[in-house]
Amino acid sequence: MKKTFTKLSTALLTGLLITGFTVNAQTTTYASVETLHKKEVAKKDSAATANASLKNTATVAAVKADDAVDTAWHPQRRLWGYAFGDAYYVQHAPPLTSAQGKENNYYQTPTGRNAFQFRRIYLGYDYDINKKFKAEVLLAAEPNENTAPTTATSSVVNGDNLADGRMSFYIKNFNLRVREVWNGTDFVIGEMSTPGFALNESGTNAPTSLSEATWSYRSVERTITDFHKNNSYDVGAALQGTFDPKTKNYGYVFMIGDNTQSNLTTVYNPNSTVSPTNPNPNTGFFKIFYGDLWAKFLDKKLYVDLYADYAQTSSSVASAAVASGTIDPQEHNMFKIFVAYNAKPFTIGVEAYTQKLKNAMINTADKTVDDATVNAISVWIRGMIVKDKWSYFARYDNYNPDTKFNNAATYSVNSNGYSSFDPTTKEQFVTAGIDYTPAKNIHFMPNVWFTQYKTQYDPTHTGYVPDNHTLVYRMTFFYTFGK
Predict the structure, then answer these.
(1) Signal sequence: where (predicted)?
(2) What is the bridge-based pairing of β-strands 114-128 and 250-257?
(3) 3-state DSSP assignment of residue 182
(4) What percent of the chain has a predicted confidence (pLDDT) above 90?
(5) Adjacent-strand bridge partners of 289
(6) Which letter, b or e, does each residue of 126-156 get, where b requires 16 or more Cβ atoms within 10 Å of its Cβ?
(7) What are phi and psi of 120, to 5 degrees?
(8) Span 164-181, pLDDT tens digits
(9) How far is the C-alpha of 298 from the C-alpha of 300, rounded, in Å?
(10) What percent of the chain has pLDDT above 70?
(11) Counting Cβ atoms within 10 Å, is residue 200 exposed (0-12), middle (13-18) or buried (19+)?
C-alpha cells in the first residue's frame, strides 16, 4: 500500500511537472508570438510612416514646384476698359449768355435739361513685349454735355465730339515702358499720364498714391487740379522711380513733355496769319517740366505728395493791345501738396495748390500786362457703410483764379495754353453722394453736383455779373472690365 501511494504520488508529481512545463512552454510561445507580432506591426507602422513622410516630402516638393511656376513671370496681354456717366437733371444753371463755369461739364447747359450721358469711355490694351519692355495703349471718349456747334458752320465746342455731335475716340496714351533701367526706376516714353494727379501704375515703379487714385471718385468729378486744366497726360519722356524698391514707400517722378497733351499744336503755316487754326509758331519750341516726390508713412496709411511744374509757353510777341507794343514771354508754374490719411472706416484728403500765370492778362484801361496767381484747395472724405456694398463720399473745393485781381480794372485774358481761364470769377464746388456696389467693379452713385460762382468785379463795374450757380441731381453709373 505504501509503495502504491508512493508510485501514485510520484506519477502525480511528474504529471504536474510535465503540465507546468507545457503551460510554461505555451505561455512562452504565446508571448514570443505576441512580441513578434508587435515587432511586425511596429515595422509596418515604421514603413507606413516612412512612406507617408516620403509622400509628404514629395507633396511639399510638388507644391513648391507649383509655387515656383505660379510665381514665375507671365507676359501680360490685357484688354480692359471702363465707362462712367449719369442720368442727370439740371435744377438750375446760369443763363446761356453767361460765361460762368467755363471749365465744368455743364457749361451753358440750360436749366431743366435732363438726359443720359457718358462722360468717359476708356478702351485700353496693355502688352508686355518681354519682361523688360511694356507697351500701353489707351483710347478715350470724353464728351462734354454741351455738344452744340459754336456757329452753323464751325466745329463743336468740345474737341472730343465729332462735328455731328457724336462721341469719338482719340488716342490718350500710347507709350513704351522700360522696366528697371536701374534698380527701382522705370523709363517711359510716348504719350502718358503726368504726375499732376493721374498716375496709378500698380506693378511698376510709378506711384499709386497720387490724388486721383486716392480720391477714387473720378467717375463723380475730376480732382481740383484736373478740374482747372492742369495736364493729366502729355507727350514726352519720364523717369518713374522708388528710393526703396523693396518696400516702395518713397519715390519720385521726373517728366519732360510738349505741354500739348494730344493736340497737334506744333503745326504752323508761315504763309498765313497766326490764328486759332494756325497756331502760335512759338508753341512746340518750349517744353514743360514735371517733378513729383511722394511718400507713404505710418504703415502706408499716410500719403504725402509734393508736385511742381514749369513751362514757358511763348516768347516776346508784338501786340498793339499794350502800351509797350510787346508782350513779354509767357510762362506758368504750379506748386501743389496732397495729403491723405487712410483709416479702415474712412479716407480723408486735402489737396492745395498755387499757380502763377505770367503775363496772362492785359489791363485794357492802361494797356499793361499783369500776372495772375491762382490759389485753390480741395477737402474730401470717403468711407464705408457696409463692406463691399455701400459707401459714401463728400467734397468741397474753393478756387480763386487771381488773388490780386483789381476789381476796378477791365481785363482781357492772354493765357497762352489756358483758353478757359477766367480771372473774373471765384468758384466754390460741392458734391456728395452714396456709392452702391451690387457686384465688384460695378457702381451706382446718386449724388448732388453744385458750383457757386461769385464775380470779382465791383458791383459798379460794367463787367459785373450777379452771383449764380449750377445745381445738378445725378444718378452716376460706373463699371470696369478686364482689370
Answers:
(1) 1-25
(2) unpaired
(3) strand
(4) 58
(5) 256, 310
(6) bebeeeeebebbbbbbbbbbbbeeeeeeeeb
(7) -160, 140
(8) 777 889 899 999 999 999
(9) 5
(10) 76
(11) middle
**Mean predicted confidence (pLDDT) in 203-227:** 95
- Among the ranges given (18-32, 157-171, 220-234, 296-310), the one the predictor scored with the smallest mean pLDDT: 18-32
d(CA 360, CA 415): 4
Residues 6+ apart with CB under 8 A from 267: 279
| pLDDT tens, residue by residue, 288-339 | 999 999 999 999 999 999 999 999 888 888 888 888 888 888 899 999 999 9
C-alpha cell at 342: 487712410
Dihedral of alpha carbons 59, 64, 65, 66, sign: positive
What's the average model confidence in pLDDT over 15-23? 40
Cell of 156: 463743336
| Phi/psi of residue 296, nearest 5 degrees | -125, 125
Quick one: cell of 420? 478757359
What DSSP element (H or E) covers 66?
A: helix 2-70
User: CA–CA distance from 191 to each of 142, 207, 236, 261, 440 (Å)?
Assistant: 17, 17, 6, 8, 30
- The closest of 307, 253, 264, 260 to 288, measured between CA atoms, is 260
**Residue 351: which of 205, 206, 202, 209 has the closest Cα?**
209
State CA 478 to chain mean position distance.
15
What's the DSSP call for residue 225? H
**Residue 177, exposed/middle/buried by CB under 10 A (0-12, 13-18, 19+)?**
buried
Please give the Cα distance from 93 to 309 (Å, whole number). Answer: 34
